[in-house]
Amino acid sequence: MIILDLLFYTFLAVVSVQVLYFTLIFGKFAFLKEKDVSNKNIPVSVIICAKNEAENLKKFLPSVINQEYPDFQIVLINDASYDDTLEVMEDFANKYNHIKIVNVVNNEAFWANKKYALTLGIKAAKHEYLLFTDADCQPVSKHWISKMSANFSNSKSIVLGYGAYFKIKNSFLNKLIRFETLLTALQYFSFAKNGMPYMGVGRNLAYKKQAFFNANGFMDHMYIRSGDDDLFINQIANKNNTEICISQDSFTESIPKTTYKDWIKQKRRHITTASYYKTKHKSLLAIFYMSQLLFWILAIVLLFTLFKWQFVLSLIVLRFIIQFILYGKASKKLNERDLVAYIPVLELFLIGMQLSIFISNLISKPKHWK
């Protein structure tokens, strides 16, 4: 009985942590009203780093080329590809004079390091304002550049955007990937609005060139193969220099993984990178994950034993009501409303997958970005 009492009060504490996290942190973004920001029409360099992406460039690059924006350059970085990526880039460059190609060959000191290739691309960009996406991404509208760049100002040198994934019907894996993407975005947007920006995603991210050079680029974490987006933002972002962009015209969509093996491989890289975040960010993210894990474990144990089951059930219902409200509002903002009905199942699967990936990373760590 003493053990069950201890488990019950631990469960009460866990639910309290979850509710506080949902309301105080997530609520800042969930109830945020989108600002009406006027277009600035500042010159922008769009930077796309590609490694063996010939087919994706053929398919998605036109959506960037055809943006309705008065002054933008496209910097295409060929990162030592061994397919026809360079040839595809050259075909586009021959047709459009605002495309610049940076051809990167493998360097022994920076072998298979995307940060080295990106650094060369950033140096080659002719404009101060840089907008990043990937070769397998496409903007959802012709106003992507204008919506993202409108958030720059004298004080705001970083703009965090949303990079969604294409929807695949009748695919649980696709729902799981998009739910994880939604939750990650909810976290980094919410942290930013609470004055604690900690990451962005390279599928949709913008910052000033000067901010890159002021930080000595990626040098502080060049030895880490991944993290050209989240680690760099974790390094330079603060409450004064960071803005978020949640206009649905500013979103990008990417090709999602279609097998669990490929997705897990991708997430292993992401989770490895997160271990290098600032201590305060790691602590807050760890508290949230542990509270999720303990919530499910303790809820199942206490319900199974029927110990104070009325109180336990009431706490579970309270937690889910608050979660559905806040996640529902966030998913509406990010155009992911079809996921709301599956939240409990997706959350449980995601917690399990993250735990298994964390354990795998303790044994061996991924080394290459592709």
UniProtKB/TrEMBL annotation:
The residues covered by the Glycosyltransferase 2-like domain are 45-184
Molecular function GO terms recorded: glycosyltransferase activity
* TM stretches of this protein: 6-31, 284-303, 309-327, 339-363
- Annotated SUPFAM superfamilies: Nucleotide-diphospho-sugar transferases (SSF53448)
What InterPro entries does UniProt report for this protein, alphabetically? Glyco_trans_2-like, Nucleotide-diphossugar_trans
- Name the Gene3D superfamilies on file: Spore Coat Polysaccharide Biosynthesis Protein SpsA, Chain A
Which top-level group of life is the source organism from? Bacteria
- Recite the UniProt keywords alphabetically: Glycosyltransferase, Membrane, Transferase, Transmembrane, Transmembrane helix
Recorded family membership: Belongs to the glycosyltransferase 2 family.
Q: What is this protein called?
A: Cellulose synthase/poly-beta-1,6-N-acetylglucosamine synthase-like glycosyltransferase
Q: Which organism is it from?
A: Xanthomarina spongicola
